[in-house]
Design brief:
Length: 336
C-alpha cells in the first residue's frame, strides 16, 4: 500500500511540474513580449499572451526558432489588434535579439514614426509595417540592418524622399512603399541594387521627374510606378533578356517609343494606360505565352494591333483612346 501511495505522490509531482518542463519560451523574450503588450495597452486580441502559457506554441502572432537559436522568438506578427486609441510602435520590439520577421499590419491606430530601437535587431530579414497611420520619413538608421531582405511600408502616411541609401543593403530583395506621400525623384543610386533585387513597388505616391538611366541595370520581376507624376523615358525598364513578369506604369506622363522596347519572355502583365507613350505595339507581344493582362489605353500609340497570341482576347477598352491604333479588337485599319 505504501508503495502505491509513493507512486501516486510521484505522479502528482510530475504532473505539477510538467507545464514548467514543457515551457519552451525563453524567459527573457517572454518578458519583452509582455512589455510589448503593455505598450499597446494590453489589447484583447493578445489575450492568449498569458504567464501560464508557452509563447512559442500558444501565443497568437508569435513563433520561435527551434534550430539555429532554439526557443528564441523568431517571428512576431501584430495584426488586426483593434486598438481603441492611438499607440506608437512598441520600443521594446528592439529587445528581441533573434527576431527575423516583424509584421505590424492592419492597425490604423498605430501612429508616430518608426522607432530607432529596431536597429538592435541585427538578424531582421523581413520588416512589414503596413496599413497603419505611421508618418515621417523612411529613416536612415534602417541602413544599419544589413540583413534586411523585404521592406514593406505600404498604405501608411510616410513622406519625404526615397532614400538613396537603400541599395547599400546587400541582401535586399524587395521594397514596397505603395500608397504613401513620398515625393521627389527616384534616386540614380536605385540602379545599383544587388542582382538579387527583384521587386520595386512605388505606386500611388507623389514622385516626380524623369527616371534615372541607371535603372537600365535592374533586372526586376515586378515594377509598379503607377499613380505618380513621373515623366519622360521609361524604356530602360524593359528588356528581352530580363526576368520581368509585371510592369505597371499607368497614370503617369511617360513618353517613349513602345515599338522599340524589348519584352521579357516571362511577361504576364503590362499596364501602361494614361501616359503619353507612342509608336506601335511590339509584335513580340503575340509570342508571350504567360501574358494575362495588357492595358495600353489612353496613350499616343498608332498602327495595327499585331494579330495572334492573346492580343485579340483582351477587351477593346484596353486599347482605346490612342492616336490611331486599329485592328481587332478595335475597328479595322483603313490606312495600314
Amino acid at each position: 500500500m505504501s508503495r502505491l501511495i509513493s507512486i501516486s505522490i510521484l505522479i502528482l509531482i510530475v504532473l505539477s511540474v510538467s507545464p514548467a518542463l514543457s515551457e519552451l519560451c525563453n524567459p527573457e523574450d517572454k518578458q519583452v513580449l509582455f512589455q510589448i503588450k503593455k505598450e499597446l495597452g494590453n489589447p484583447s486580441s493578445l489575450s492568449s499572451w498569458l504567464p501560464s502559457t508557452d509563447c512559442c506554441n500558444d501565443w497568437v502572432g508569435v513563433s520561435c526558432s527551434f534550430q539555429t537559436h532554439p526557443n528564441r522568438v523568431k517571428n512576431l506578427q501584430l495584426y488586426n489588434l483593434n486598438l481603441p486609441k492611438p499607440y506608437l510602435i512598441p520600443l521594446s520590439i528592439g529587445n528581441l535579439p533573434y527576431l527575423e520577421f516583424i509584421a505590424i499590419t492592419n492597425n490604423p491606430n498605430i501612429v508616430g514614426t518608426i522607432p530607432p530601437t529596431i536597429t538592435k535587431l541585427t538578424k531582421l530579414r523581413d520588416l512589414y509595417i503596413r496599413d497603419t497611420n505611421i508618418s515621417g520619413h523612411i529613416p536612415h538608421f534602417l541602413s544599419q540592418i544589413k540583413t534586411l531582405r523585404f521592406i514593406d511600408f505600404s498604405n501608411n502616411k510616410l513622406s519625404g524622399n526615397l532614400p538613396s541609401w537603400l541599395p547599400s543593403l546587400p541582401n535586399l530583395y524587395a521594397i514596397s512603399f505603395e500608397n504613401n506621400r513620398i515625393s521627389g525623384t527616384i534616386p540614380a543610386s536605385f540602379g545599383s541594387f544587388s542582382k538579387s533585387f527583384a521587386l520595386m513597388m512605388l505606386s500611388n505616391n507623389r514622385l516626380t521627374g524623369k527616371l534615372p538611366a541607371t535603372l537600365a541595370k535592374l533586372n526586376l520581376k515586378i515594377v509598379n510606378l503607377s499613380q505618380n507624376k513621373l515623366e519622360g523615358d521609361a524604356s530602360m525598364l524593359f528588356g528581352s533578356w530580363k526576368r520581368t513578369e509585371n510592369i505597371n506604369l499607368a497614370n503617369n506622363m511617360f513618353a517613349f517609343d513602345l515599338g522599340k522596347v524589348g519584352l521579357s519572355k516571362m511577361l504576364e502583365s503590362l499596364h501602361l494606360s494614361h501616359n503619353r507613350i507612342y509608336g506601335i505595339l511590339p509584335k513580340e507581344l503575340t509570342s508571350l505565352k504567360s501574358l494575362i493582362w495588357l492595358d495600353v489605353s489612353y496613350n499616343n500609340l498608332c498602327g495595327q494591333i499585331p494579330q495572334g497570341g492573346k492580343l485579340q482576347t483582351f477587351d477593346a477598352s484596353f486599347y482605346a483612346h490612342n492616336k490611331c491604333l486599329c485592328g481587332s479588337p478595335l475597328p479595322s485599319c483603313k490606312h495600314f
